[in-house]
Amino acid sequence: MGKELSNEVPKLYVIGLGPGDPGLITVMGAEVLRKVKLVFIPYSTSSNRSLAYTIVSKYIGPDTQVVFLGFPMVKEPSKEVLMGNARAICDGLRRYGSAAFVVLGDSSLYSTFYRIKPFIDCDYEPIIVPGVSSIMACAARAGVNLAVGDESIVILVGDDIEGLMRATGFADTIIVLKGSADMGRVASLLRNYEYSVTYARRCYMDGELIINEPSGELPRDYFSLVIARRIYK
């Protein structure tokens, strides 16, 4: 059951759950999940599944209420979808006084929360709880050093080929996320500009795959990325 809200401003804890392994959630994130009585979990309406729930379920109590918020896997969700989910968040905050909104990876990097944040028009205090991003997880899994000294890093999405070409002019490390694009083409382009390339998919999840210096076609998977390190001779 919910509780009547006091004069205190409701708190919304935005928790990064890490890359997919329940053991990689932060201590702070786990503590918040054990404490709150309401958790909002975004899920993909195209698959009707939520990897986030499998992580959250290991930490929440039996009386914690879970509200699933559907988001289509498109570049720009409609305003109607975002407004509807924002209303659900405000309703929950008014009833419970605090809640958690969880995302895979880190809470500040390509986070679903920042898509919906402009539409949350009720009074609340966002508290951002960081998590392990897929970039850090896959670099660790593959044993790839991302940068040393004053080296630069550029992060791109898979379909930004123009940005990729610009980045080859100066970046020591290029990371390409959201591999539903043609990552084989991305890897080939980067090798042509003298980068050492690693393809990583679903790090710390079922179906994990890591390929050093890949060639040819690569699996198209939203949970994949390419890490490229410039080769200095």
UniProtKB/TrEMBL annotation:
Domain Tetrapyrrole methylase intervals: 11-218
One Pfam family of this chain: TP_methylase
Cited SUPFAM superfamilies: Tetrapyrrole methylase
CDD domains: Precorrin_2_C20_MT
Pathway noted in the entry: Cofactor biosynthesis; adenosylcobalamin biosynthesis
Transferase among keywords: yes
Keyword field contains Membrane: no
Any one GO MF annotation of this record: precorrin-2 C20-methyltransferase activity
Alphabetical keyword list: Cobalamin biosynthesis, Methyltransferase, S-adenosyl-L-methionine, Transferase
Any one of the GO BP annotations: methylation
Entry similarity comment: Belongs to the precorrin methyltransferase family.
Protein name: Precorrin-2 C(20)-methyltransferase
Native species: Vulcanisaeta souniana JCM 11219
Taxonomic placement: Archaea, Thermoproteota, Thermoprotei, Thermoproteales, Thermoproteaceae
